Amino acid sequence: MDFRYVSNVISPEPQDRPHGAAARRGPFRVGERVQLTDERGRMNTITLTDGAAFHTHKGFLNHEELIGKSEGSIVANTTGQLYQALRPLLSDFVLSMPRGAAVVYPKDAGQIITMADIYPGARVVEAGVGSGALSISLLRAVGDQGYLHSFERREEFAAIARGNVETIFDGPHPAWQISLGDFQDEVVKAEAPGSVDRVVLDMLAPWECLDAVATVLAPGGVWINYVATVTQLSRTAEAIRADGRFTEPDAWESMVRGWHLEGLAVRPNHRMVAHTGFLLVTRKLADGVTSLALKRRPSKTEFSDEDLEAWTPGSVGERSVSDKKLRRAARDASATTQTRGHVAPAQPTVPRPAAEDSVQETDQAQNPDA
């Protein structure tokens, strides 16, 4: 029997580990993603496959050199180039995984989990799944006994998200459900009034979901929005204030700056992850209660028809993604789980992409400014 030390007391290793935990331990296996770091600090992520190799202009490394080795091993390619091999952390995986839409950066996902108080066992709904980066963080927070219902308008994005979620959790997650359709229409059909603890929206026009959120969110529940522009932030905040069923909204952004550490040369890095989006949070009041009118100094807060026009989703804009790129991302996202031999359960709302005849290696250099 395996034992571990907890507070100086020996206790047996639990038999029922959280979903996906076993895949994070032990030697490297076929189908796993491995992060290779060379002697200059450059990182590449590969998917271990029988008979495959990782090629660069400085030679190639056979995957068999990694399969069965312990995490943290150092291996050499055919020309002696050394690589440090580790499993990608969640932050690494998010930046290197196949994507069809822009991902929620780890710095914002961490803020969402903490400031929205996403806890184990919580019932959470989200909209705007994109490539599944935030869904992964939410599933880790709610745990196997929690509940996450994700809504996505585009079938291609849902397929990519499912592949990425099943890759990092080594199969389908028991707490996750994903549905196609507009959030404001579908969530009121799927969730009972007042049954949801947290609502997380990453979309162009969250103000259009006011009634839906107010219907399904429990009194005291948290509603957090991720928006990219000041115009979206402004209109969402004003809509929440005018509605009266929520507390005064609070908004912020976070910026992350790394530091260069080399002997006495300790200084901020020249590059940083600056603005990615704004977070706006509010809470649902009890039924029949109207929010407090906060006392403010007189100021010009009225807006004109021209201001309203600037608040439309069309004015905010959205970068289009080609169908070809989406199909490729969906194939890449599902490749790892197919290599490991997992078969996803039937999902009537979103068809799973067809399996590939062979698994293609995904060698993607990680760029924190991508």
TrEMBL record:
Q: Which GO terms describe its biological process?
A: methylation
- According to the record, the residues making up region (Disordered) are 1-27, 298-370
Top-rank taxon of the source lineage equals Bacteria
What EC class is this? Answer: transferase
Its keywords, alphabetically, are: Methyltransferase, S-adenosyl-L-methionine, Transferase, tRNA processing
Q: Where is the tRNA (adenine(58)-N(1))-methyltransferase catalytic subunit TRM61 C-terminal domain?
A: 95-259
Give the CDD domains listed for this entry: AdoMet_MTases
GO molecular function term, any single one: tRNA (adenine(58)-N1)-methyltransferase activity
Report biased composition (Polar residues) as residue ranges: 361-370
Its Enzyme Commission number(s) read 2.1.1.219, 2.1.1.220
Keyword rRNA processing part of the UniProt annotation: no
Known PANTHER family for this protein? TRNA (ADENINE(58)-N(1))-METHYLTRANSFERASE (PTHR12133), TRNA (ADENINE(58)-N(1))-METHYLTRANSFERASE, MITOCHONDRIAL (PTHR12133:SF1)
| Name listed for the protein in its UniProt record | tRNA (Adenine57-N1/adenine58-N1)-methyltransferase
